[in-house]
């Protein structure tokens, strides 16, 4: 999916952190933690997941909407930035 | 912003409907309508606004990310559909 | 809906500001403003609407879930704060 | 957190399913699945998490806002339903 080993490692690190957060929710439920704590953990987990989603979408827009080898320079950078600005706002 | 008169008229009709919905919220508050009604009106208005946002984003992606005259065929249709699928899900 | 004249005036001021924002979107579309500007205006309008929604929900929780005259002290303040913390996070 | 063994088991089953979904995202990234697939998996996972959040919030509202033993009948059922209607809409 991603184009560089680095990007892949970064995304994997993020998704593993999210898995850890989901496991924390699971442990909190098992331990009968109070509702407030469970809601707080869930809200953080969802925020982390939205952040990951925004990053994957950004990667998708930059890498896949246009084949840069066949159509170099075709992607309008300013329009991309405007789109990603909206995406980041909505996926927070 | 839009490329055809038709698209523009469609978006304008949508935004005017949203203005009408906001005015209905205003009237409900002025008339001391109950909270439940105000929350319901606000939820519908927000949904309408998200729908409009999704349409404007779609228009933006299809029309502005690539200058189709200079780079015909550069925009990958499948990748666009994948992106818009996510956008629609998030902007509901 | 609200319990004091002040609260009502505050909510009305907010909803009128939102109406003004929707009208700005309308004018931007009429004037063929660029997509980026329209998306930006829409995002701000939606954020303002979410903020209003969070306030109405808060008012609803504090004023209507329990009839304070019949059941004084029945509403658990800490549980209310936990709930509203989540509501504010989600309605941003 | 929850009041019955059944509720707890139901929530635990949900959070474990979500963990499985996060693991599927991880595997997809490791296997260099295409962006579209990763975005689709992430969107489903986030939807499942929002559904769980809505359920925990509902549980919180029904069980913790009012101590039903000390203040029986204090929670206004209609107002609760109006609140939860909004919560479900926003947490989808």
From TrEMBL, chains A, B, C, D:
It holds the Pfam family Trns_repr_metal. PANTHER family: TRANSCRIPTIONAL REPRESSOR FRMR, TRANSCRIPTIONAL REPRESSOR FRMR-RELATED. Gene3D superfamilies: Metal-sensitive repressor, helix protomer. Belongs to the FrmR/RcnR family. It comes from the Bacteria. InterPro entries: Metal_Tscrpt_repr, Metal_Tscrpt_repr_sf. This is Metal/formaldehyde-sensitive transcriptional repressor. It comes from Muricoccus vinaceus. CDD domains: RcnR-FrmR-like_DUF156.
């Amino acid at each position: 999916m991603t184009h560089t080993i680095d990007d892949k490692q970064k995304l994997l690190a993020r998704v593993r952190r999210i898995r850890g957060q989901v496991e924390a929710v699971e442990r909190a439920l098992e331990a009968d933690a109070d509702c407030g704590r469970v809601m707080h953990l869930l809200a953080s987990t969802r925020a982390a997941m939205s952040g990951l989603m925004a990053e994957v979408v950004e990667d998708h827009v930059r890498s896949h909407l246009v084949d840069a080898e066949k159509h170099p320079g075709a992607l309008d950078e300013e329009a991309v930035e405007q789109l990603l600005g909206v995406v980041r706002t909505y996926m927070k």
